[in-house]
Amino acid sequence: MKNSTETARERLQKLMVRGSEILGSKYPILGGAMTWISESDLVSAMSNAGIFGVLASGAMDGDLLRNEIELTRQKTANNFGVNIILMNPKLHDLIDVCGEQKVSGVILAGGIPDRSITDKIRAYGMKVIAFAPSLTVAKRLFKHGADALILEGNEAGGHVGPLSAMVLIQAVLLNMKDYPIFVAGGVFRGEMFASLLQLGAVGCQLGTVFACCRESTAHKNFKEALLKADGRNAVLPVQLDKRFPIAPVRAVENAGTEEFIAKQREVLAKFDKGGISAEDAKLTLEHFWAGALRKAVREGDVERGSLMAGQIVELVKEERSVREITDAFLTEAENFLAAHGYPG
Ligand SMILES: Cc1cc2nc3c(=O)[nH]c(=O)nc-3n(C[C@H](O)[C@H](O)[C@H](O)COP(=O)(O)O)c2cc1C
């Protein structure tokens, strides 16, 4: 309910309280983990700017993660989290490292965690945040002890679910207003952030915009390719045959995108002629993109590497610092509230 004496800044502060408390950060904004990109430099810059940086453990084992956590701690005194992919064979080691290092929160990606995993993380005193692709799963995850959830729309960069953020907001967030839910996928402007908070979200997660920021150690070719791309260039791979499902990974199209279609054609023809088993066909297609994100992010191979990015590349047009991005975002949010009845 609007209180006429409340200023736009006070209103925004109030809207941000719940999410900030959960994350232990000044602002309820998660710097979404990005494999090969979300390492100590970027994550510490995020946490120093008041948002909640998240280290990506996708390409790490326990020792590498421990080292990265220690490096991040040397660069920031603020809280940050660790993103762990559930199918990582080192899942338990990675959780143990986070627990020993007293990381404040673990973000579980790449599936739906079962209770033993959420219990294990909580037993270390760490918060558990997971992704919910539907209302049913969201309810189950909260029942299993998740401290907060992220609704990530199909427009996001990297591995995505089938539904857009717009649909998830109405299907999940609006039905679970008392629960702590963050929204990800295509969030770029502070007006959107303020609107989501008003709808009941406790905060947001942003990825692509930070892949291109000054503190991101991604190769300059990678950043330039994203900054140059339009939203319609950030596509999901084409799947030629339902028998061989293709992982839905949103990335800016390049030569690799076309070659992957040709590869599917070749493998399918071979399979249909009995020249290759279904298992081998599946593995060949799975292996096509193996190592491709590293190739693009580290080596700057923007033709054959994977340029994972969300549709929001439509709006990401310049390389700014994390602080500049955060400050602009918050100013836009405040101005939006000021324009909607809260005095500036
Ligand atoms: C290059 C890249 C790599 C990503 N890697 C991961 C990852 O390792 N784990 C994860 O949970 N999400 C990953 N994501 C998703 C982001 O954390 C975030 O949820 C997403 O980018 C938000 O949507 P946006 O790109 O529209 O801002 C990645 C995204 C990008 C662009």
Describe what this molecule looks like in 3D.
The protein has 14 helices and 12 strands. By secondary structure, the chain is an alpha/beta fold. An 8-stranded parallel barrel has the order 1-2-3-4-5-6-8-9, surrounded by 7 helices. Strands 7, 10, 11 and 12 form a 4-stranded antiparallel sheet that branches. The longest helix is centred in the C-terminal third of the chain and has 18 residues. The mean pLDDT is 96. The structure holds flavin mononucleotide.
- The percent range for helix content is 40-55%
Shape: globular
Query: Structural class given helices, strands, pairing?
Result: alpha/beta
Strand order of the largest sheet: 1-2-3-4-5-6-8-9
**Low-pLDDT residue intervals, each spanning 5 or more residues:** none
So how many helices? 14
Arithmetic mean pLDDT? 96
Distance between the termini: 18 Å
The CATH topology annotation of the largest domain reads as TIM Barrel
Number of domains: 2
CATH architecture classification name of the largest domain: Alpha-Beta Barrel
Tell me the Rg in angstroms: 20 Å
The fourth-level CATH homologous superfamily of the largest domain is Aldolase class I
* Quaternary organisation of the protein chains: single chain
- SS strand fraction: 5-15%
Secondary-structure element series: HEHEHEHEHEHEEHEHEHHEEHHHEH
Bound molecules: flavin mononucleotide
Number of DSSP strand runs: 12
Main pleated-sheet profile: 8 strands, parallel, barrel
What's the CATH class of the largest domain, please?
A: Alpha Beta
